[in-house]
Amino acid sequence: MKIIVDGMGGDNAPQEIVRGAAMAAHELAQLDPEITVGIIGPQELMLNCLRKENWDCSSAEKISDDVFRYGNIDIINATEVITNDEAPAMAVRKKKDSTIVKAMSLLKSGDADAFISAGSTGALLAGGLVTLGRIKGIRRPAIAAWFPKMHTGGTTLLLDCGANVEAKPEYIFQNGIMGAMYVEGVKGIDRPEVRLLNIGAEDSKGDELHKEAHRLLAGSNINFGGNIEGRDVATTDCEVVITDGFSGNIFLKGSEGVALAIMKQFKKKLREGLLAKMGAMMAYSKISELKEMFDYSDSGGAPILGLKGAVLKIHGNSKAIEVYYGVMKAIPYIRNNVTQMIADAVTQNSELFKTGDEE
Amino acid sequence: MKIIVDGMGGDNAPQEIVRGAAMAAHELAQLDPEITVGIIGPQELMLNCLRKENWDCSSAEKISDDVFRYGNIDIINATEVITNDEAPAMAVRKKKDSTIVKAMSLLKSGDADAFISAGSTGALLAGGLVTLGRIKGIRRPAIAAWFPKMHTGGTTLLLDCGANVEAKPEYIFQNGIMGAMYVEGVKGIDRPEVRLLNIGAEDSKGDELHKEAHRLLAGSNINFGGNIEGRDVATTDCEVVITDGFSGNIFLKGSEGVALAIMKQFKKKLREGLLAKMGAMMAYSKISELKEMFDYSDSGGAPILGLKGAVLKIHGNSKAIEVYYGVMKAIPYIRNNVTQMIADAVTQNSELFKTGDEE
After folding, report:
1. CA-to-CA distance for B57 and B47, rounded, in angstroms?
2. Do B325 and B295 touch, CB atoms closer than 8 A?
């Protein structure tokens, strides 16, 4: 098994990324010597970063012209980088030797099993579509994100968070299939409950898009729990909440914005006046627990589901710890072959809607 | 000027509603004797409630068969009530003597200037459309809500919050006009900044619906500040955020859900352990200030904009104080003739899009 990390993706690349990859490789050397961690980027730069982490780089095993192995870390040479400022579709066509495009090629050829990047989401999506391709039967990939269960701890998978803004009922329905299979595969929850984000809880609510998606979901073999309103997502017991990419994005970012604004005000208020300051100090450990609720660093990142391979986007400001968890959480994704689970589930439910307009 | 309150709307009707109306009437008797507060509902019931508030009901002036005046309060007889469980469109057609339908008729005939209700939003919308009608040129009414500016205090107007789930670019554009005129009229802010809720800040972002709405807004005479992402709404300085009714509803309810869940967890955490409890007590006044940020009771309710009259929905669980503020905040709405301001602004911008498909 080989898990590749994008050495050039995100605000803290390359050193923090390489550090996280080395942390994971160090642990995996004990846990499972069959797993190799790949770091993709300009060879010399990657190697220098790796040396700074005190990784033994004294002897290299040449795997191919582009790949050199140091213990259980492979340095994979890729000379180009796609930045957040570039138009994704154009960039993935032009920069064939970029970390993202090259990693997608390695996934496609079977030379790698998962790719983790803190780089441009748009480029990951475009590179995934162009180079790696979709799972057979999947109309559109979707970006999934973990949303905190604020009443009990734990997380709910939310998708689509913005991969497809022009949605069709079939896309939303397939988000349900993909989300259910992913949670089943990585969390080991059998038949996780899926609900549809909508403007009302009753079956008849919503626009035509969501009404039709509801109909498809209700007729499928997934464990569909019906509609869920925006106000109930933060305290739901269900495992997967699905919607179209536009309202999913608005919901996710809106919630994040409100949570951040509240925490900021809260901090500010508790600094006003001696009594409040003392009170805050005394309540400090509890307040910290509250903050942990919004700490996503151990989530392992957001999978881009529907691609023919495991692609995980971690936050642009990820540090070593997020990279480490990204690698570790990719393992059950690969081991349980979630990609195949999705392909099988799509086939099982393919009778539900016409597949004539596949693009 | 006559402002009618729905004596039968909401969870706390009729007594709390009548109490709020009486509070407002009591104050208005001093402030402006030209303003009458109407309470609509079953005559005897309303009168009994009013007596319980120690209102002088000893002598009544008969205004019409259905209306009796007690000081500056009119009791308007309406024998039926539309509940939240009823299908709105059907209910407003059948229950001609309901508080909602009758109040809309009074607005239409000019016998009342504003209507405030804690009753069914769907019935207010349906009753407004069927009985009162739309402002000439307005395609669809929209429900507006006040959203807290969490960094500075104050509020941003958000619309549409769910009146129209099948949106067209023109509807979103007109939400911009209506929101701007409402804020200008009731807050006295000249040319308030309007922004479009979208999945990215750049002009090119979004689905076709929002891209086209962006184009219309940019070409209009309103003060359009471009797109705004979900995460920035809670801390925006702009006055109006517009979107389609589906994503507006998802955004508003999602934000409310997250805010409530955080506050609940926060309370819970601060009750765990003696130290945290003592700390919380010491920080209590500051924590209360934080809670006030989410206290909408003085907002005066959510206007249903685009109807040919001032209709304000207050929360279903409104108590007397919300009713009182509903009445008081309706005054500038009427005085500054926001309905006419909207009509004029729509006419000014009518060249921007074809009006052929008006329904």
Report:
1. 8
2. no
Q: Is the peptide bond before A160 cis (omega within 30 degrees of 0)?
A: yes
Predicted pLDDT of residue B358: 47
pLDDT at residue B357, as a whole number: 47
Question: Is residue B16's pLDDT more than 70?
Answer: yes
Average pLDDT of the residues in A112-120: 97
Residues A139, A170: Cα–Cα separation, whole Å: 8
Q: d(Cα B308, Cα B123) in Å, to the nearest integer? A: 16
Residues in chain A, how many? Answer: 359
Q: Give the closest of A234, A266, A269 to B258, CB-based.
A: A234
Cβ of residue B286 closer than 8 Å to a chain A Cβ = yes
Q: Where are the beta strands (DSSP E) in chain A?
A: 2-6, 36-41, 61-64, 67-70, 73-77, 114-117, 142-148, 155-159, 194-197, 224-228, 240-242, 302-305, 310-313
- CB contact A299 to B (< 8 Å): no
* Interface A:B, Cβ pairs < 8 A: 190
Q: Is the pLDDT of residue A15 over 50?
A: yes
Tell me the one-letter amino acid at B346: V
Q: Tokens 């979103």, residue?
A: B172
Contacts of A246 in chain B (CB under 8 A): 199, 206-207, 210, 247
Q: What is the mean pLDDT of chain A?
A: 92
The identity of residue B259, as a single letter, is A
Whole-number Å distance between alpha carbons of A75 and A80: 15
ipTM of the complex: 0.90
Helical packing angle, B274-282 and A274-282, nearest 10°: 160
A267-278 burial code (b ≥16 CB/10 A, e <16): eebbeeeeebee
